[in-house]
């Protein structure tokens, strides 16, 4: 029997994550049945669970993948850019991962964090990447002289994360988003250093 290449295994894993992301976003964790996951990924349950132990492991891997993608955006452009991506019309798989489908996954993570102690413990081990990326980006901005210096970087990190959670909640409730781009402009401006004041 020929061995399957690592590239093939990685591509199959990506196919499962991308398909399941839209399934979890559309139906929620409980509603994302194995049958629906099969339809969304185009793969059999055997193929899906060859790569992931169970549905929870798949969901955690997906949430971790989304957090890693967000951390990459944060490292390059900052956490406010992640928020801006949520407000843009997504085009293509990469944009969807940081757009509407990501929002659905993020809402499921938030719900499960409130209701599932075991999930909360497992997620805590994975969620630090985004905080670390945000803190590192802010420290770099501080060293570059672009960040306000009257507020501790850890406080600014917590502030931006709180804004992100508020934005996610706002979008989840279906509230109007017509002024949110301008709100994010204010948020971005609020962490910048203003010379000459």
Beta fraction of the residues? under 5%
Largest sheet: none
Report Rg. Answer: 19 Å
Poorly predicted parts: 91-97
- State the order of secondary-structure elements, H for helix, E for strand: HHHHHHHHHH
In DSSP terms, counting alpha (H) and pi (I) runs of 4 or more, how many helices?
A: 10
Distance between termini?
72 Å
Computed structural class? mainly alpha
Overall shape: it is: elongated
Based on DSSP secondary structure assignment, what is the total number of beta strands? 0
Fraction in helix: over 70%
Tell me, rounded to a whole number, the average pLDDT. 85
Oligomer: single chain
InterPro entries: DNA-bd_HTH_TetR-type_CS, Homeodomain-like_sf, HTH_TetR, Tet_transcr_reg_TetR-rel_C_sf
DNA-binding region: 33-52
Organism: Saccharopolyspora ipomoeae
Pfam family, one: TetR_N
Describe it for me?
The chain has helices spanning 6-31, 34-41, 45-51, 55-77, 79-87, 93-97, 100-115, 117-143, 153-172, 180-191. The protein has 197 residues and is mainly α. The radius of gyration is 19 Å and the shape is elongated.
Short summary:
The protein has 197 residues and is an all-alpha fold. 78% of the residues lie in helices and 0% in strands.
How are the elements arranged and paired?
Elements: H1 6-31, H2 34-41, H3 45-51, H4 55-77, H5 79-87, H6 93-97, H7 100-115, H8 117-143, H9 153-172, H10 180-191
Helix pairs in contact: 1-2, 1-4, 1-7, 4-5, 4-7, 4-8, 5-9, 5-10, 7-8, 7-9, 8-9
């Amino acid at each position: 029997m020929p061995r399957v290449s690592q590239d093939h295994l990685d591509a199959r894993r990506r196919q499962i994550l991308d398909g399941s992301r839209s399934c979890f976003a559309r139906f929620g964790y409980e509603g994302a049945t194995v049958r629906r996951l099969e339809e969304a990924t185009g793969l059999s349950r055997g193929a899906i669970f060859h790569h992931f132990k169970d549905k929870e492991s798949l969901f955690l891997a997906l949430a971790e993948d989304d957090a890693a993608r967000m951390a990459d955006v944060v490292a390059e452009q900052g956490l406010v850019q992640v928020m801006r991506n949520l407000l843009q019309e997504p085009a293509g798989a990469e944009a969807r991962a940081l757009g509407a489908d990501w929002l659905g996954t993020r809402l499921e993570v938030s719900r499960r964090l409130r209701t599932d102690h075991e999930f909360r413990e497992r997620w805590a081990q994975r969620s630090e990447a985004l905080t670390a990326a945000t803190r590192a980006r802010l420290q770099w901005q501080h060293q570059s002289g672009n960040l306000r210096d009257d507020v501790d970087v850890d406080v600014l990190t917590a502030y931006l994360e709180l804004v992100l959670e508020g934005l996610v909640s706002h979008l989840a409730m279906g509230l109007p988003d017509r002024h949110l781009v301008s709100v994010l402009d204010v948020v971005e401006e609020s962490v910048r250093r203003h010379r000459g004041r």
